[in-house]
Every structure is written in structure tokens, then in C-alpha cells.
Specification:
mainly alpha; 1 helix
């Protein structure tokens, strides 16, 4: 029984061709800050939103714990 090569070795189609395709370029990332002028996608700076999220996430756990303890205390002592 003879084995068939299902995946032949890759071959360059443009061998000998001098035309080189340019490297694709990514779009520049939008800059946000005090020194950037022009339209913005979101008028609120993302670093301030990140500070707010960090503040809320820092205090969400302790507040949930206090709330749970208050509910348990109210349930036990009512």
C-alpha cells in the first residue's frame, strides 16, 4: 500500500518576483490625557474611571461582610 502525501511542502509563489508587499500597519491607539486635543471616544478619562472602580472594589468586600453580619445579628436577636 502506498502512502499519499496530503500536505505537500509549502512553496513560495513569488519566487524571483521583485514586488514585495508592504507590512500591514496597525491603527494607532487613541491617546487620552490633558495634552491631547481633538475628539475623544469617551469624554471621561479612563484613569479616573479605573481609580473609581478600584475604590469600589476595595470597599465592596468589607461592606458585604458588615451587611451580612448585621443581617445575621438582626435575624438572631429580633
Amino acid at each position: 500500500m502506498m502512502m499519499v502525501d496530503l500536505f505537500p511542502p509549502p512553496q513560495d509563489r513569488n519566487v524571483g518576483s521583485d514586488s514585495v508587499r508592504p507590512t500591514p500597519r496597525d491603527d494607532p491607539a487613541p491617546q487620552h490625557g490633558k495634552d491631547v486635543d481633538g475628539p475623544k471616544i469617551w469624554p471621561f478619562p479612563h484613569h479616573l474611571a479605573e481609580v473609581g472602580v478600584q475604590f469600589l472594589s476595595r470597599w465592596a468586600g468589607p461592606m458585604a461582610l458588615v451587611g451580612a453580619l448585621l443581617l445575621i445579628g438582626w435575624w438572631l436577636f429580633r
